[in-house]
Structure formats: structure tokens, C-alpha cells
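ugh ok fine here u go
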Amino acid sequence: MEHRRLGRTELQVSVLGVGCGYLSMLERAEGERLLERAFELGINYFDGRYGDSSFKLRPLLQRHREACYVVTKTHEETAEGAMRRIDEDLEELGADYIDIFLLRTYNHDMLRGHLAPGGSMEGARRAREQGKVRFVGLSGHEDLTALAAGIETGLVDVILFPLNFLRREALDELVPLAQQHDVGLTVMKPVSVGIAPAELSLRWLAVQPIHTMVPGMTTMEHLEMDVAAVERRPAALSSEELAEIERLQATLGPEACHQCEACMPCPEGIGRMSSLLYDDVVYNHYRTMGLRAFLEHPWSPWAKKGMQAHFERRLETLRRCTRCGLCEERCPYHIRILDLFERMLADHPTVIEALRERDWATLYKDAPSPYR
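structure:
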């Protein structure tokens, strides 16, 4: 596994990390097993703070803390809130310090909140002085100019941002600016939530000027395939592969939401469009796995409990759409929103019926949620 210097942090991080968000839906033992195997394969970078993912990381850290780099994050915008979150993370991880603590920064309003007197940046830096945090950064997937503005302050060691061959805008200004300030470049959404084929996507990203990428993983097969993709030699893409990427950009690009929310507000009161189209963890699992594999996967009890209701809520929202087309007119990336809605409207009833037959909502009604 190739390792790269993570900007001015000087950490040597594996070019492939693990995004632990999807792991929060797995049974505890299965998540722990996947993380252990990732470490065996040379991965040392773990992007966490989702559900119970910190608890699943804990056994690995008890054995290999100095060899692992752990990332957590928060929405909190006050110093007290950020410090409280850090203490919670340390308790769940069973650790004395966090390597990188990220402040979620989706827009300039959030950035101003972090940077204000008494804001979360102040708390994160105070925790750093106390030895609880080694480095501080920003995480954002909407307005990348907010991350750029954060870099300009000189307070940011690392950024986490979306980049894949379907969504390349970070390469224009954000990445060069981070390089200028020697800020660590860590990439989320490297396979565009499964829309783009992993082998091509990860190999394309591995030759870009980034330090590590953190795809979500929920199966051992995902992990093994991702590792094989970034370790393939020669690393350079062939002319045929580059041509295939451009073909996929043309065909899949109109299905990959950029999470900019320019399509909003909806006259029918549909909330965040990107949550329906792009970053719904439960639906993305179903879409990439297929119904049978989705139903047979070792989901945690709390995830099983809420799946039927989750799809029912989605279907109710989709049915509110009147097909006015205003969202597509506003979208700067020409996403085929109405076509995607039709596809979801066709498959959701099938999923709901299959979940109803399993009656997970009743069987696991007392399962506690790991989110708080």
C-alpha cells in the first residue's frame, strides 16, 4: 500500500483509507472484522464519527493505536460544543487523542460560526493545546469556496472534500490552493456513492494530487477490490481506460448530484434534493447491492428496525413531486432529476413489500440507535 505525506501534518497516510459512515449500519462484529482486515492490507487512515463506528474502531486501536490515524468531526459551532464532542469521541474510541478533528463546513455561514470568538475552531485549538487533538481541519461537500476561505485563514491543517471523475470541480481552485498552503488533501465520495465503477474511479483518483481517499465500505469484497484497484501497477491509466472514463462522464454525469442545492426550494416542499438523489446511505446500499444482497446483508438491529419506514418516507416524498421541472431548470449540472425520480418510484414499492414480509420493524423494535 502506497503511503503519502499528508501536507504539513507530516503524517504518512495510506492512499486508500476507510470511510466509516457505512460501517455504522453493520453488525458490530462484522464492522470490527472489516476494519481489522483493512489494517492488515496496509490501510492506516480511518475517517469516522458516524453512529457506532468509533466503538467498532476501538478494538483495532487498542492493539495498534500508534500505527493508525483516526479522524472525527462535528457540526458544533461553539468552543464548548466542540470540546464536548471531542471528549465523547475519545471515550467511544477508548483513546487518549484524536489525530485529526474536522469541523463540518458546508457553507460560509458555518465557517463564520466556527471562526467567530468562542466558536468551534477556538475549542478545537484549545483541545489541541491539551493534547487531545493533533491536527484541525474542515470537512464540506457543498460550497467548496467555504473550504477555500478556511484554508486562507492559516488555521486549517487538513480538508475533506468530494472528488471523483464525475465531480472534478475541486481540481480547479481548491486543490491548488491547498497545495500552496501545504494543507492535507483527503477525499470523500471517491466513487460518487457507487454511481461510478470503483476500479476506474479509485485508480483515476490515485493519480490526482491528493493524499488519501476514504470510500465507504460495507463488505469484505468492497475492501479487497478497492485495495486491488489502488495497488495495481502500473498506476497510470491506459488510453483505453481514459477514454472509458470520458464515456462514463458523459453517460453517468447527469445522475451524479453535486449537492449544491441550486435546485431548491421546491414548490411542493420537498426538502434537501441531494438527500433523495445522492447521499442517502440506505438507498445507496440497495441501489448498488441489488434487492437480494441488500436483504441478506448483516445489518445491525437498529438499521433493520428503521429500513421499512425509511423507504416509506422516501416514497411519500417522491409522490409529492408534480413534475413541474423547475428543479431541472435550476440545476447547473443538468442532472436528470425527474428521470431519477421515476426510477425510484418504480423500485421503492418492491423494496417496501420485501421489508414488510421480513417484519424487521417489529422484530427489532427495541434496538437502540447509535446516533445521538
